[in-house]
Amino acid sequence: MMNNSIQLNARVKLSNSQINLLRKQGHVPAIVYGTDIGSIAVTVGEKEILSTLKRNPRAILNAAIPEKGNKPVLIQNIQRDPISNKIVHVDFYQLNMNVTMDSKVTIHFSGEPLGVKEGGILQVELYEVEVRCMPDKLLSAFEVDISGLGIGDHLLVSDLAFHEGIEVLSDSSAMLVKISHAHAEEAVVVPA
Question: Exposure winner among 110, 117, 159, 190, fewest CB in 10 A?
Answer without folding.
Answer: 190
